[in-house]
Amino acid sequence: MASTPSKALETFENPNQGRDYTIHISIPEFTCLCPKTGQPDFATINIDYVPDRNCIELKALKMYIWSFRDEGAFHEAVTNQMLNDFVAACDPRFMRVTAEFNVRGGVYTNVVAEHRNPDWIAPEPVHLP
Q: Which of 1, 3, 74, 92 is the least crowded, having the fewest Cβ atoms under 10 Å away?
């Protein structure tokens, strides 16, 4: 059965709910269209999150990312939309979405959007010698 783009995000139960740990996902082939010119924009999307009860299922994430291919989107808007959609799907303790867009007109754009659950306290960083 062929896959198709979809905005539906699926999750699965976090197997280690009692521990803070970070999931890093890198998507180097994101594409959307410039809403002004209709030309393609290319970006690497990095998602870093500390899950709570649920984690994002990767196949559904791939179909979600694919769904932007033929849509016009400003860099700032699409990055924040992704964050909103991911948070709505899995309600993480913390999440950061970083969109590193390729050059357009001699300008590189990086957009970083974050969510923090107000009840979550980040652990102290450990610095090893």
A: 1
